[in-house]
Structure formats: structure tokens, C-alpha cells
């Protein structure tokens, strides 16, 4: 699947690349953090299906895809939240539904906690909630050095059935990874190893923060996800007051790629039920 160039806009010091398709109530698609990822690689297959009823915005966050970041700029969640809110302001996007894949889910939550009036609803997929031991598949991405072979090995860990990892996907993500060969953005997201040899603990939004969310939230997760364990999604759904949970059997970390038809149907249904005023006449 080709990775078409969208548009660019200055958000502070960050020249941000994004796709902006369709019209209607806004839905913002936020990508994950794997090597060579971009908004189009994560979402290109479903953007047209959602854009027939909504304005769909899908940005490359700083350090990913076609978005660069200034030398010396610290990459952290505060910076990405500021970039996202600045982008939505620049594009005159009002309150939106945020759809986040993995890192994108964490960014969706952080943005909601900072500026809840900007977020109408949440769709969180493969999102790191709470505290859990870092998985080998999650750690593997931080050790990536650019090559086709290394990219193929890493991508094969994400889906339940590695057959969906095509030669084109490997090539496209490898070429994109050359734009960020130091993998700085992904490394910035990973917790430091403890000095005493204890397990590395990933820390997402804790249950007590999740319990403060007022936005309708759809939680999607693959049962066979070896990157972010399924159990964290179940726990999160128990704590988010207005939540729905859907688990996909025989599915790994890429719900929107492994189950694209079901993903689109579930998201469309969620948006239509929870925001009925947005439904087309």
C-alpha cells in the first residue's frame, strides 16, 4: 500500500505531516510507535471507509512518518500532546473523537486528561493501560537497526497471523524507518531498565485516572496480542465509567489491519449510537 503524501502545517517548531479527508464530525486517528510507522501505514486501509461520514484527520506525530522534529527537541508525552492540540487548533477542528492505536491510545488519553473539552469520545486499541511487565515484543522495537530483514522480523511479531505482513509493507516501513534511523521517538516512550535486574515495568494511565473519564469509550484489543497483553484492556474497561470492550479472537496488536471490516463496523456503530446527532439524515 503506497504511502501518499498528505499536507504539512507548522505546529510550533514542528512541521507536521497529516492527512485530512472527508467531511462531517471530526475523527482523529493516532498511530502507534513501531519502527517505520506512519499515519498512512496504520490507517490507510480504513480512512476511506470512515471518511464517507466523518472528517478524518490522521497526523504523523513528531519523530514518526514524514514529521521531523527540531534537533535537541525533547520527545515526551507532553510534547506530543502539545503538538496534537496545536494541530487541531491550526486545522480549526472542534471537539473530536480520538481513535488511538497503542502509543496513539496513550496519546489520546493524555490529551483527554489535559484538555477534556476537546475530546468527545475515545476508541482505544492495543493501548498500554496501568502497569504491566514489558513484553519481549514491545522491547524488540527499541533494538531495531534499519534493514529489510530486521523490519520483517519485527513486523512479524505484531499480528496473530504473520501472513498479513507483505513484502510491500516491509519495504515501505523499512524506507520510512530510514528517516528516523536512531528510533529516538520509540526509545523515548520506553521505560528505563531498573539497575537491580527487576522486570521492566510499563506505566500507562492508572486505574484511578481512568475512573475520571467522562467520555464514551470503546476499547478494542486482540486476544493474542503479545505486545500489549489483553488483560490490561480488560482491567481498563472495568475502570472507565462509560466503556465498552470488544476482544478479537485470533488477532494480535493490529486490530485495524487484521480485522479491518469488523473494526470499521464497530467504530461506525459506536459513533452512531453514542453521537446520534452526527448521523447522516
Describe, in plain words, how this protein is organized in 3D.
By secondary structure, the protein is an alpha/beta fold. It contains twelve helices and ten strands. The strands form two sheets. The protein has an eight-stranded mixed sheet with strand order 1-2-4-3-5-6-9-10. A two-stranded antiparallel sheet has the order 7-8. Helix 3 crosses helix 4 and helix 6 packs across helix 7. The mean pLDDT is 94.
Topology:
Elements: E1 7-11, E2 14-21, E3 26-30, H1 39-43, H2 47-51, E4 55-59, H3 77-90, E5 96-101, H4 103-114, E6 119-125, E7 131-133, H5 136-140, H6 148-155, H7 167-177, H8 184-189, E8 201-203, H9 207-210, E9 217-222, H10 230-239, E10 243-248, H11 255-258, H12 260-274
Parallel strand pairs: 3-4, 3-5, 5-6, 6-9, 9-10
Antiparallel strand pairs: 1-2, 2-4, 7-8
Helix pairs in contact: 3-4, 6-7
